[in-house]
Amino acid sequence: MDQRTVLVVDDEPKIRDIVRRYLEADGFAVTEQADGPGALDAARDQRPDLIVLDVMLPGLDGVEVLRRLREVSQVPVILLTARDEEVDKLIGLAVGADDYMTKPFSGRELAARARVILRRASPASSASEAATAIRHGALAIDPARREVTTAHGPATLTALDFDLLLTLARHPGHVLTRRQLLQAVWGADYFGDERVVDVHIRTLRKALRDDATDPVYIETIRSIGYRLIAPPLSSAHRAERHYR
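Structure (tokenized):
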């Protein structure tokens, strides 16, 4: 397997050095940038497999960098935030971050999360699982190609949002709690804020053009979690009604 490349973007050399050492010890190749414009240039020219992106950057802040990245790329992004930047965490997740870590953070944990995210972004390891397409009404999911189509046409999802949808789609009609979704998508060793699930459900619904107040695909089960609406025959009809 080719060596994976991680772009580390932070204006503090000490933090870049810590992150570099842990990632390189885990077998990653690492490149660095210290500001927002440089991050965008490096993402375009180097095409890294993963970006570790600080929120507080000179030139362009990390949230704006992420917003511009998502216009042209679905590269996985881990957002770094200060302890009191709760709003930036939620905005960053809504814009399309795959995960976030709060400073000060463990370099070992960051490297572990990078492995999980890149494993998730890779094609399914099981050939039979990858070959099995899933269809629920107008929703079609191709795990092998990591493609999603709705009544509106192809939907563009981040790697994490794709796996979130795939997890729900493999249990149609069954309610999955936030903790179950965290363990299935983020990994059993993830102990972050469960609200990350809610934020990604919102971005997933936006990509699917699914109305939370009258959902075709994803239903909220108050105080518990979410489920993919089971595919009765009326599901396709409802999807077509929304499409019109």
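Residues 127-243 form a domain with the Arc Repressor Mutant, subunit A fold (CATH 1.10.10.10). The CA atoms of residues 174 and 227 lie 6 Å apart.
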